[in-house]
Amino acid sequence: MSEQKKILYIEDNPDNRHLVSRILMAYDYEVILAEDGILGIQIAKDEKPDLILMDINMPGLDGYATATKIKSMPGLANTPIVAVTANVMKGDRERALTAGCDGYLSKPIDVDALPEQIAEFIKGRRDHVDEATERSFLREHTERLVESLEEKIAALTIANEQLKRSDVMKSRFIAIAAHELRTPITVIRGYADLLLNPTILPKADENIKTMLQGIASGISRLYEIVQDMLDITQIEAGTLKLHIAPVRIELVVDQVVAIYSADAQRRNLTMVVEPLSSLPGLWADSGRIQKMLSNLVGNAIKYTPDGGAITLSGREVGVEARAVSPTRLQAERYLRLTIADTGVGIDQDDHGHIFERFYEVLDPRFHSTSKTEFMGGGMGLGLSIARGLAEAHGGWIWVESERHDPERCPGSRFHVLLPITAPPER
Ligand code: ADP
Asked: Has this prediction a pTM greater than 0.85?
């Protein structure tokens, strides 16, 4: 028994797809369907069919362009492509053959003749046009390809402009919302703190105190979220102001570790800080550096299961360190801090994306929103703010991790580069 032959039929009309596949399957062909040119090219590459039936008039990439592309792909140059088209205008056959097709069948399809015609092409039939005809149609084909490319570029340019406009609108919305929210939140926060002061409500019973503490911590979290939104808009707009002063990195690291130590203890996470005091001092905005490291350590805590370890280390590095950044770094010497965890890890494909605004690897609908619980996701802003802050200082942040694997926990290492510079001129 001979091997079953595989036919790819690229056709946008579902009735035609149905009809032709029924006929061919009745003759024991395996039929694979693609509803447009782009999909057809992909399937041709993956499936390596014995023959391709190609509709010519398709929206998007038409049959001529699809045939030209398929013929240029490795392993497909000799695969027969048979055009099936309702075009019965003069020159249509020549046009199809010049574009890379090896045969031409007109619609409506002759149900009785089709299987025999297909068998002929599979056996080796190839139709040709003479050289002079081919040359003239080739020019027309090329012109049409360039024309459609021009149309696509024009459409893409318009779409791109629209995207840019909605991106600006989105940034403006975030900026306004955050700005407007900050004022009432600050007021509520102030009153909540005041009510917690024992001199204001000296006789408040424990239940009321607990409730007030709940309100105060909820408001603090809300305040941080709004602050993150404001930070990201300033980073994006390039309007972030840094208060540059001498900074000892070991002191900032100690403050960050202190913020998380209770949560780390509760979750049985070991936090190790390797000696940093021999590192040179920086000229930087210590508040912003603290925020940047806090986001990284916070993530290390969130994405490491209970019982894991988080290690902070640092060293001085030279100009060779600049190579990690696609932006132009200027300094000669850098402090490189590393926050390593034994957590779930990050797939290599995501290493770039996680620094994008609002990007989350896992579906945000399924995570708990928490700053320190395992897998407690946030808004997807922490890393873009951290990298924005590093960049504002003339530095960079990047990640190393083998893969995302919550079972084996390969861990992640986030590296921060901060320039070691002379004091700024006043
Ligand atoms: P989020 O608010 O979601 O934590 P981030 O910008 O801080 O936003 O991080 C983006 C995504 O990067 C996270 O949703 C998480 O999937 C991944 N990620 C960040 N840090 C780590 C880490 N230390 N280990 C594993 N995944 C991480």
From this structure: no
